[in-house]
Amino acid sequence: MDGSFPIEDIAPIAILMDELRSEDVQLRLNAIHSVPTIALALGADRAREELIPFLQDSVDDEDEVLLALAEELGRNFEEYIGGKEYAHLILGPLENLSAVEETLVREKAAESITKVATVLSQQQIEQYYIPLLKRLSQGEWFTSRTSSAALYPAVYAKVSPAIQDELRKGFTSLGSDDTPMVRRAAAKWLGPLLTHFSQPHIISDGLPIYRKLQQDEQDSVRLLTVEDLIVIAKRLSPAEVKEQLLRQIKQSIGDKGWRVRYMAANHFNELSEALGVELVREELIGQYVQLLKDNEAEVRSAAATQIPGFSKLLDKEVILARIVPCVRDLSQDSSQHVRAALANQISGLAPLLGKEATIEHLLPLFLHLLKDDFPEVRLNIISKLETVNTVIGIELLSESLLPAIVELAEDKSWRVRQAIIEYIPLLSNQLGKPFFDEQLGNLCMSWLGDTVYSIREAATVNLKKLTDVFGVEWAKGSIVPKVMGMGSHPNYLFRMTTVQAITTISPSLNLEIIRSDVIGPLLELAKDPIPNIRFNVAKALEVMAVAFVDAPEGRAFIRDWIKPTLERQQADTDADVRYFASRALQKTIPNDT
Predict the structure, then answer these.
(1) Which of 70, 124, 293, 331 could serve as a FRET partner for 60 with CA atoms 20 to 30 Å apart?
(2) 165 Cα distance to chain centroid
(3) Cβ atoms of 293 and 326 closer than 8 Å
(4) What's residue 589's pLDDT?
(5) Among 123, 98, 93, 128, which Cα is nearest to 110's?
(6) What is the mean pLDDT of residues 145-153?
């Protein structure tokens, strides 16, 4: 350091050093986050000469501090040290971080190294990056070798053919490493690296690495090769795939480790598209059926999510002969998660099968799943009915679906009734207003008179959601008259439901409807002989006041209608009514009203 520097210029690096030696982890963390600021204060020259060497020696710290350092160095840090021509200097500290024990730090350091690589020239890459890559790849500790796998794809396409040869050999060594963690990293990064290989090198170098990893004794390595397989298949012709990959494809699909089969099932559509229609029809149908019938529920669930996508590649007759029987079995699967995955996808078969086959084969399965004990299964079926509707038409769907909905709506278990209520807005949104008014309107109103309070409460929330779906004008004609009509019912429970329904839906209505259709009957109920109804009216008025207080006409409405009623209720004989009336006045009535 030049002795002619003023003391204030020396301060930033000294402060950083002091803070990084602090016993307080948070202070050290803050110091790392301030590194860009310190670099700016030092200037590019001193940042290169003093800060970078200091950071290179700062790897003996808590993991979260090292993680923060790895992250900061990947955030365009070259701008603080003189620009792209000096970006290779950042590789030094990151190389050290790539070899630490903590996985998260290593991964972040490797990610930052690849970011730095994007701004390096070919000369910098060959002079600085490649030697670093070789050191990490041949490191004594598995940690550095594991990190090195992520660094190959970023520069492969940017270097000379001679260095590319070395990189392929280096990566081949990683794929044969003694440590499973290194082989796992090689399996993870093989796919991205292969995208940069030339066609001949895919076959001469890529395939042998893939085959070695695909035969690995560790299933945690084998499962990562499924994505590598897809990358290779996309680069080969169908004839080459059949010759070079078919055996490995079948091995992965039938692997003894369920996690490998799960990965194969989860990526089956991608794999099928990479192979092409002809090869899929020749070779993969039986493999896919095998996954749909797998012993493990997780594998069956993953395979079920691929049903429509895979079926698009097949003829209708094949879907009916091979896929639909599996779908039928899955609809009665012992695992609720499998049934839920199926319910989410089964409607996608309808456009492929057409109207008649859907009615014959799929409709009975929809109805069966609609009565499933598991709520997610029912919801998944209802949420995708629009696809079926476009195939078979609303009339047929309502003929078959409506009896099932009515049956559920009248189920002896109130929880089943509650569940179907919650799906009604979703169903109505898909099937439209005319269908709802004709088929479901009366059903929804009947729930307001249910013997179970939770059902009545769910029914009022349902009405609010329907108002949001169909609009206030629809609510004015279809909901409000029926709800207000219940207000004069001899049974107090019906009158109570009216008050609670108004409390719930009034924020979704406009002031005109409240003034013309709602407030009159509601204020009559403020005089009801049952105290519970009277104090619930006070609650309803409080909600209305909150909903309309912001508009001038709303404040006038509050002054003329709501405030006088609440003031009268403050003198009520019942303590609860007085309490809720006072609360409503205090909370929601502005002083100027």
Answers:
(1) 124
(2) 41
(3) yes
(4) 56
(5) 98
(6) 88
| Of 352, 287, 286, 279, nearest in space to 319 by CA | 352
Residue 307 pLDDT = 92
Q: What is the pLDDT of residues 354-385, one digit of tens each?
A: 888 888 888 888 888 888 888 778 778 877 77
State how far the Cα of 336 lies from the Cα of 377, in Å rounded to an integer: 8
Q: With both helix axes pointing from N to C terminus, report the angle between 414-431 and 453-470 in degrees, rounded to the nearest 10.
A: 10
pLDDT at residue 247, as a whole number: 87
Instruction: Indicate if 485-592 has the same CATH topology as 1-120.
Output: yes
Cβ neighbours for 194, distance < 8 A, ≥ 6 positions apart: 202, 206, 228, 231, 232, 235
Which residue reads 């609650």 in tokens? 539
Q: Identity (one letter) of the amino acid at 25?
A: V
* Distance (Å) of CA 405 to CA 68, 94, 371, 386, 501: 55, 62, 9, 16, 23
Following DSSP, what letter does each residue of 101-138 receive, concatenated?
Answer: S-HHHHHHHHHHHHHHHTT--HHHIIIIIHHHHHHHHT
CB-based contacts of 528-534 (< 8 A; 24+ apart in sequence)? 528/492, 528/495, 530/492, 530/495, 530/496, 531/572, 531/574, 531/576, 531/577, 532/492, 532/496, 532/576, 533/492, 533/495, 533/496, 533/499, 534/569, 534/572, 534/574, 534/577
pLDDT at residue 13, rounded to an integer? 65
Q: How far apart are CA 224 and CA 188, in angstroms?
A: 6
Predicted confidence (pLDDT) per residue in 26-85, tens digit: 877 887 788 888 888 778 888 888 788 887 877 666 778 888 888 888 888 788 788 888
Q: Where are the domains of the chain?
A: 1-120, 485-592
Select from 50, 48, 68, 37 the least CA-distant residue to 10. Answer: 50
User: How many Cβ atoms sit within 10 Å of the Cβ of residue 125?
Assistant: 20
Determine the topology of domain 1-120 in CATH. Answer: Leucine-rich Repeat Variant (1.25.10)
CA 297 to chain centre: 21
Distance CA 314, CA 307 (A): 11
Residue 199 token pair: 């066609």
Distance between CA atoms of residues 345 and 351, nearest Å: 12
pLDDT at 118: 87
Domain 485-592 annotated CATH 1.25.10.10: yes
pLDDT the model gives residue 335: 92
Strand, coil or helix: 540: helix
